[in-house]
Amino acid sequence: MWFSIAFVIGAVVMVIRLLDKQGLINWGLILGELKSIISGIKYYTLRTTLTSQPDSLLGTMFQDRNEALLHPISGNEYFIDRNGLAFHYILEYYRTGKILWPKNNNSSSVAKDMITTEELQQEFDYFQIPSTFTDLSQAHKSAASLLDEFITSLKDSAYEPISRFHTGIELIFYRDGSIPSIIPKFDLPSISSIQWRFKLEGFQMLELFGEEIEFHMRAALTDFNFKISPVSAYDGSKNIAGWRITMSTKPLDKLSVLGNSCLVQDKII
């Protein structure tokens, strides 16, 4: 009996495949699925797959309440004028909730050879998928940008204490993400921005790139002594609790300050 059932199933599958090759069968209808044509490439999926991401464009579009707004070209078939190859990754997101873009540049993926990261990002934006698409290289670029911003902020903060008659400053960034300590406790724009902008990332950047940052800052701020040193853990262990940045310069040029003040007028008189 089992042999007979297997034979019948095999025969049905062969007939369906033959009809499909001849274009006589609409899989979108026969399987009760939605069929989308994205710039010439056909994709099949379930309505429930799309509505599983209700905040996205297709998730909203195929909600039951929007049925009257849909305009299929035939039955359950819809045409969308977007990047057909990139839609493979869009649909996989609906199915898995993950972005399955191959991170390995040596990947043999045909689509990866024809789609750029920027194109895929545009498609994610168009379909309003509530997820920021980044590959590893983009993440590294973002990290580099944040590192540059951190270094620029340090340069700005080096000079501000001089305006308060101090020739040095210490900043301590903690492993646990606590608000960095500033000594002396200046209430100055660039220093305050460092405290809040980099309270979580400051430690990690100093941990990874401390030597490079120190070398760069010494070359950029030739009038300053710049040093990065570890702060021991409070429990006496060998773990580093934080990193201390020390920036100091020579004493104020009294004549320069005096020459730019009202006191110089009194001296002339």
Automatic annotation (TrEMBL):
Gene3D superfamilies: Potassium Channel Kv1.1, Chain A. PANTHER family: GH08630P, POTASSIUM CHANNEL TETRAMERIZATION DOMAIN-CONTAINING. Pfam families: BTB_2 (PF02214). This is 3236_t:CDS:1. It comes from the Eukaryota. InterPro entries: SKP1/BTB/POZ_sf, T1-type_BTB. It comes from Ambispora leptoticha. GO terms for biological process: protein homooligomerization. Residues 38-133 form the Potassium channel tetramerisation-type BTB domain. SUPFAM superfamilies: POZ domain (SSF54695).
